[in-house]
Structures are given as structure tokens and as C-alpha cells.
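Hi R.,

As promised on Friday, here is the backbone we talked about, encoded as C-alpha cells. Could you run it through your design pipeline when you get a chance and send me back a sequence?
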């Protein structure tokens, strides 16, 4: 019913403007609360699953002996190491020739990325053996046939255990050992090089550090991959490599692709900028930008450039490195 001014009274069908505004505000609040709750759930799931995302592994393998992979690693022997926290790690000692005895040639301590296991990198070992280097390749805890669950603390302990194997069990001279890390493995290799730098005067001075497609920190890499998540607040394994590489005293060589979307070039450059300009033996740090290379295809795209660069770098180290007495010390 309308009143004298032609307006609907309280019994009319149209709600008052204030009632409409209140309804819209309530709907907006419910929507906002739903979005916030959904985001919190996503963050909680990501935080809870972060190590599964960071360490996908390559599937547990019951049999990864040299005999089972004789075609892939024809000149090799099995390696078994017990870590300080009681885990058993398995790996291979791959030799550059069929004599299968350590000599004066360099040995590469190989740290692979976060996917797959050591058998998937056999073709990369061949690149090193063709350069006249032996290779010690192992799987982290939770990878290959190894038990345990991976974490930053665990991987760094694995790295120290393999260094002790190389210098104590295998009897290799520390100055002949090259640390090589790819992607996540670069974080482990840099962490080990950082630890060794504090003990270099006791004889723990590696020949050099080579990293491929490696990040400045896992925080930086994760923030790039998941910009919508508060990774700087919730990330457990941070791999602060740029901070750690600042104290590394051995020669440093880095490779990075300009089309890397997993670890963008800017993060590799940030890591390189943090490294000392020269090693304690006077070898300048070196950065090799591989054009048209992504994260996983860098070695294929680089081709001979990778081996040519490493060869010249090793030659420079040989020329510049001052003589030191053979020694080793556990860390």
C-alpha cells in the first residue's frame, strides 16, 4: 500500500536501502572469510608437504650395485658409508680407466639434484671420466636404496660422510677432490665447501667447487616458484648458499642457463656475486652463461663447451695451486 506521497509503507515489498547494504556487507564478509580460510588451508598443506615437494626422490630401488648397472658404469666399485647419525648410504666409485685404482688424477664428489638417483646420472659421470677424473657418486638418505628421510640437515651430514669416505677410506688427497653439485645438489656441495673452509688449514682444502643451475637460497627459489605463498615464513630447509659461499676459499666455477625457469638466472647471478673474487690460491671465480639452456637440459645444450670449460679451469688450478703436503682431517 502506498502512502499519500506515493511511497511504499512498511508493509510493502521493497526492503529499505540500509537493509540491502547490510545484506551485501554480510555476503562480502562471508566471501572474504571463505577466501582467507581457503588460503590458510593451502598454506598449511604446502607447509606440511614441503619436504615431499622439495625431495621427490626417484623411487626406492632394492638393487643398485655396480654389477646391476655394469653397462652404465663399467669401471666402478660399490661404496657403503655409515653416517654420524647411523644411516647407511650407498654409492659408486667410478674410475676413469679400467685400472680402477686412485691415482694423481682429480676425483669428483658428485651431488645430484632433487629428482631421481645416481644411476640416472651415469652419462654425466662419463663427461667427467673423459676429462680424466674419477667420480664418487652417492645417493642422499631417502634416495636410491638408502633409508631415512631427506632434509637440509640430513643432506649436509650425508655430504660430510662422503667426504670422510673419500679422504679417509679411499685415502684421497683433499686437494685432488672437486665438489660438483647440480641444482639442489649445489646447495649440499656449497654447504660442504663452507664447512671445509673453516678447516682448510688442517688439510681439508678441496681442489675446487663446480655448481650447475644452483640457487642463491632455497627461500629465493621457492618464492620464485610459489609467489602466492609465504615461503619465507614457513620454509624449513633454507639452503642459504649465497651466505655460505662467501666464506668458500677454493676455486669456484658456475654454469647457468638463460632460460632456466626453475632457478632463474638472477638467482644464479646472485649466488655468483656472493662468492669471493678469487680463491686462496689466486684462481678467479668464473661464471659460464649457457644461452638457450633451461634447468634440466644445460649439459645437452652446452655440449663440448662444458668439458672444454672444466678442462681449462682444472688446468688453471693445476698451474696456480701451490704445493701442499698430503693430509686429511675429518670434519
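Update: got your reply. Pasting your designed sequence below so it's all in one thread:
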Amino acid at each position: 500500500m502506498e502512502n499519500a506521497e506515493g511511497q511504499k509503507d512498511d508493509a510493502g515489498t521493497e526492503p529499505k536501502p540500509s537493509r540491502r547494504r547490510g545484506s551485501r556487507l554480510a555476503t562480502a564478509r562471508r566471501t572474504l572469510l571463505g577466501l582467507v580460510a581457503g588460503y590458510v588451508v593451502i598454506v598449511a598443506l604446502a607447509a606440511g608437504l614441503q619436504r615431499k615437494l622439495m625431495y621427490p626422490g626417484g623411487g626406492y630401488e632394492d638393487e643398485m650395485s655396480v654389477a646391476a648397472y655394469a653397462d652404465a658404469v663399467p669401471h666402478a666399485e660399490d661404496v657403503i658409508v655409515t653416517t654420524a647419525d647411523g644411516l647407511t648410504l650407498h654409492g659408486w666409485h667410478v674410475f676413469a680407466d679400467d685400472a680402477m685404482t686412485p691415482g694423481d688424477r682429480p676425483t669428483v664428489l658428485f651431488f645430484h639434484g632433487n629428482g631421481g638417483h645416481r644411476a640416472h646420472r651415469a652419462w654425466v659421470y662419463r663427461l667427467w671420466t673423459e676429462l680424466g677424473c674419477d667420480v664418487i657418486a652417492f645417493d642422499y638418505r631417502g634416495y636410491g636404496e638408502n633409508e631415512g628421510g631427506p632434509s637440509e640437515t640430513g643432506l649436509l651430514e650425508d655430504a660430510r660422510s662422503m667426504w670422510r669416505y673419500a679422504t679417509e677410506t679411499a685415502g684421497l688427497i683433499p686437494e685432488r677432490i672437486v665438489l660438483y653439485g647440480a641444482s639442489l645438489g649445489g646447495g649440499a656441495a656449497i654447504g660442504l665447501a663452507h664447512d671445509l673452509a673453516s678447516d682448510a688449514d688442517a688439510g681439508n682444502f678441496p681442489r675446487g667447487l663446480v655448481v650447475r643451475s644452483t640457487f642463491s637460497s632455497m627461500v629465493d627459489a621457492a618464492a620464485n616458484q610459489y609467489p602466492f605463498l609465504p615461503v619465507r615464513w614457513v620454509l624449513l630447509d633454507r639452503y642459504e648458499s649465497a651466505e655460505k659461499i662467501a666464506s668458500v676459499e677454493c676455486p669456484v666455477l658456475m654454469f647457468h642457463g638463460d632460460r632456466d625457469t626453475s632457478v632463474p638466472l638472477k638467482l644464479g647471478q646472485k649466488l655468483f656475486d656472493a662468492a669471493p673474487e678469487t680463491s686462496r690460491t689466486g684462481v678467479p671465480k668464473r661464471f659460464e652463461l649457457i644461452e638457450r639452456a633451461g634447468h634440466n637440459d644445460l649439459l645437452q645444450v652446452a655440449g663440448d663447451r662444458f668439458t672444454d670449460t672444466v678442462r681449462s679451469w682444472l688446468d688453471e688450478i693445476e698451474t696456480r695451486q701451490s704445493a701442499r703436503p698430503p693430509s686429511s682431517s675429518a670434519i
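One thing I noticed while checking it: The chain has a mean pLDDT of 89.

Thanks again,
M.
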